[in-house]
Design brief:
single chain, 3 helices, 79 residues, elongated, mainly alpha
Length: 79
């Protein structure tokens, strides 16, 4: 689950918990979507020095491209 759906505050907390989890099955026996995007999001936070991934995406991508209505979460005005 993404951090907000797992009841965790942020990607750092999510990744800290993730590394403590055992594998659900042996590699090659089954398939399941990974948490690679969440882990990559945390790496982006660390490397960029951004407070969180949302802030990085807004500042480094959306703002530069003039994407004023693109967000991770809809505001009450958008919804």
């Amino acid at each position: 689950l993404p951090p907000e759906r797992a009841g965790l505050a942020d990607l750092q907390t999510f990744c800290d918990k993730l590394v403590q989890c055992p594998l659900l099955f042996q590699p090659g026996e089954q398939w399941q979507y990974s948490y690679g995007l969440e882990v990559m999001g945390r790496i982006i936070e660390l490397v960029s020095g951004a407070k969180d991934l949302d802030a990085f995406v807004q500042e480094s991508i959306c703002k530069r491209l003039g994407m004023r209505d693109t967000t991770f979460h809809l505001s009450t005005e958008q919804g």
